[in-house]
């Protein structure tokens, strides 16, 4: 997705980070690209300003960049993971924030990434923040991330299907997930027949 002229240099920085990440992890950047595509569609449906769409797009493209610090064997491990392994996996959010916060973006890109596993009811991580403490862009990214993750093949399991993904965001709507964002996602997927591309 082309960004506005004023943000081209920042998109080039993001593209360089993605290229480095692809050297060690072929799956995660593809997941991020597809999540970004859906997130932008939701953002446009909600009439976000161009600058906010740019921020949402770039944040979505690198929302899991912190997984570069997680052992690939854990990222691709089939079956259930232990509590200890899950604790290690959760650190990718903080790592991602620390990486992106070193760059002087003209918008809250690092904060959007920091919040993409936070939930409205405060049950998310890493900070357990809630409600309006979570930027709208992060709430959009969270919904897009869930839908893409569930409806696409993962390294450790096959797709659970789009119906299951949409059922899940509806189940969490108004509790963990922003109901307005969920409704927008449902409408976007229905109108466009959006589906993730198999890696």
TrEMBL record:
<dbReference type="Pfam" id="PF13487">
    <property type="entry name" value="HD_5"/>
</dbReference>
<protein>
    <submittedName>
        <fullName>Two component response regulator protein</fullName>
    </submittedName>
</protein>
<dbReference type="GO" id="GO:0008081">
    <property type="term" value="F:phosphoric diester hydrolase activity"/>
</dbReference>
<feature type="domain" description="HD-GYP">
    <location>
        <begin position="6"/>
        <end position="199"/>
    </location>
</feature>
<dbReference type="InterPro" id="IPR003607">
    <property type="entry name" value="HD/PDEase_dom"/>
</dbReference>
<dbReference type="InterPro" id="IPR037522">
    <property type="entry name" value="HD_GYP_dom"/>
</dbReference>
């Amino acid at each position: 997705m082309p960004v506005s002229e004023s943000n081209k240099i920042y998109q080039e920085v993001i593209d360089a980070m993605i290229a480095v990440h692809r050297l060690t992890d072929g799956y995660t950047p593809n997941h991020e690209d597809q999540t970004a595509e859906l997130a932008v569609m939701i953002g446009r449906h909600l009439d976000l300003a161009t600058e906010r769409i740019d921020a949402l797009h770039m944040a979505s493209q690198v929302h899991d960049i912190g997984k570069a610090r997680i052992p690939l064997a854990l990222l691709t491990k089939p079956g259930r993971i232990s509590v200890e392994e899950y604790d290690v996996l959760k650190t990718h959010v903080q790592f991602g924030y620390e990486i992106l916060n070193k760059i002087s973006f003209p918008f809250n890109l690092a904060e959007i990434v920091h919040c993409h596993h936070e939930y409205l009811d405060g049950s998310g991580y890493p900070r357990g923040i809630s409600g309006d403490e979570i930027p709208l862009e992060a709430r959009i990214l969270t919904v897009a991330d869930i839908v893409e993750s569930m409806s696409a093949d993962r390294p450790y399991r096959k797709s659970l299907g789009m119906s299951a993904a949409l059922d899940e965001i509806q189940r969490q709507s108004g509790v963990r997930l922003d109901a307005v964002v969920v409704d927008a996602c449902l409408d976007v997927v229905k109108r466009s027949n959006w589906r993730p591309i198999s890696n």
